[in-house]
Amino acid sequence: MDAEHDEIAKSKQEGEALTWEDVTRMKLSRAPEDIEVDGYVIPKGWQAFWSPCVTHMDPAKFLPSRFDAQAASAAPPPPLP
């Protein structure tokens, strides 16, 4: 999996986001051996699934509060007839 992800990463410019095409190229694979990730063990033979919504919740990068000022300054929606 690492080689596959490295290939995708090399095709991107600095700061460029993944596209749906990139995601579809990421094949699911089985753990070749027991692997420990952040204190969790993925047993040999298990599949690892990537969840984009969880991956993008890195507190250093995911700052939903940055939209608060925009929401406060946005015009109210027009009245419905």
Characterise the protein shown here.
Keywords: Iron, Metal-binding. The chain has 81 residues and is mainly α. The protein has one domain (2-59). It is 31% helix and 7% strand. The protein contains four helices and two strands. Strand 1 (35-37) and strand 2 form a beta hairpin. It is elongated.
Topology:
Blueprint: H1 2-10, H2 20-25, E1 35-37, E2 40-42, H3 52-55, H4 68-73
Antiparallel strand pairs: 1-2
GO molecular function: heme binding; iron ion binding; monooxygenase activity; oxidoreductase activity, acting on paired donors, with incorporation or reduction of molecular oxygen
Keywords: Iron, Metal-binding
What is the general shape?
A: elongated
One letter per element, helices H and strands E, the order comes to: HHEEHH
Determine the number of helices (DSSP H or I, runs of at least 4 residues).
Answer: 4
| Largest sheet geometry | 2 strands, antiparallel
What is the radius of gyration computed over CA atoms, rounded to a whole number of angstroms?
A: 19 Å
Number of strands: 2
Distance between the termini: 55 Å
Strand order of the largest sheet: 1-2
Strand content: 5-15%
What is the average per-residue confidence, as pLDDT, rounded to a whole number? 79
Low-pLDDT residue spans: none
GO molecular function, one term: monooxygenase activity
Keywords: Iron, Metal-binding
